[in-house]
Write a structure and sequence with these properties.
This protein is mainly beta. The protein has four helices and 19 strands. It has an 18-stranded antiparallel beta barrel.
Length: 303
């Protein structure tokens, strides 16, 4: 039986949604996905602890834990522990949002053999890398520069992000430059109700001669179709013009995604159930494959 990497796990837990393909969501919200750097929360929580576990024949094992500290609804610190890669990341953002620092410790192969563990204490011993951020008058992120790329074991790459918002065109354009090698340009379109209707991403390798870039350019596009009665969303994706498996999203009366299932995948029946608290923040995501739970992601939120 084929087994897919769970799409929602990669978004909410390892921050590697669609591996290194999509670049991540910094500037916009997508149904069923979280923002990559600074997720949005309802009800101004003070602390959010997000933990994931994988289930297999031998029991369950932790995937990662991410702890968000907030002041006035703004994220001021993110701690990320990833046991499967033995890394610990600490991102600190000044309360005024003007900048911060990034620290990360990793245990390499020899350290793993000796039983060493990455921890907050080990991360604090690492020389901080500065990060810079800026926001517009509406509190929306307009730029980020610093290390936050965590999709390759033991490595964290420099990343520069810019967000451009056009309220008249109901459009957001996100530009990411990663390691001065890869460019990700994402354009997201919204309807009059503020719902996402389409997303287009172009990935280009920029550290090669210009005449070679066309061969190294990849295009993704996604359309979102909403049920007239508000009960669900169909997400259809295309990679270089070829269709990808669709996602079917069930929504509640508040428009929140409560169920995700992957369509057109033959014998693979991956599904996710999502639960929310009274403030409207999701607190549990349960992934099943062929009816068996293979992963859970939970949040403990302190208001």
């Amino acid at each position: 039986m084929r087994r897919l990497l769970p799409l929602l796990l990669l978004t909410t837990l390892t921050t590697a949604h669609a591996s290194q393909l999509t670049g991540g969501n910094y500037c916009f919200d997508i149904p069923g996905e979280d923002r990559y750097l600074l997720p949005t929360f309802q009800g101004a929580p003070k602390k959010v602890v997000q933990t994931g576990q994988m289930f297999d024949g031998s029991g369950r094992s932790p995937i990662s834990t991410r702890t968000y500290s907030l002041q006035g609804g703004q994220v001021t610190q993110v701690e990320a522990s990833t046991p499967i890669e033995d890394t610990y990341t600490l991102l600190r953002i000044r309360p005024d949002g003007s900048g911060g620092t990034y620290q990360r410790s990793s245990v390499e192969f020899i350290g793993m053999l000796k039983g060493w563990k990455a921890s907050l204490a080990s991360a604090l011993k690492v020389k901080p890398d500065p990060v810079t951020l800026s926001f517009d008058p509406q509190g929306r992120l307009t730029s980020y520069s610093g290390r936050w790329e965590e999709r390759t074991t033991l490595l964290a790459y420099p990343e520069k992000v810019s967000c451009t918002y056009s309220d008249t065109q109901r459009q957001v354009t996100q530009r990411i430059l990663r390691s001065d090698r890869f460019s990700f340009v994402t354009t997201v379109q919204f309807d009059e109700q503020g719902r996402v209707t389409g997303r287009e991403l172009i990935k280009t390798q920029v550290d090669v001669p210009e005449n070679e870039r066309a061969l190294l350019t990849t295009r993704w596009s996604t359309t979102y179709t909403y049920a007239p009665d508000g009960s669900g969303i169909r997400e259809d994706g295309f990679l270089n013009g070829k269709p990808l498996a669709a996602r079917l999203l069930t929504t509640d009366a508040a428009g929140r995604v409560t169920r995700i299932e992957m369509a057109d995948l033959g014998d693979v029946q991956e599904q996710w159930q999502i639960e929310y608290d009274a403030q409207g923040n999701w607190v549990r995501q349960i992934g099943t494959m062929q009816g068996q739970t293979f992963m859970t992601v939970t949040r403990r939120i302190t208001y």
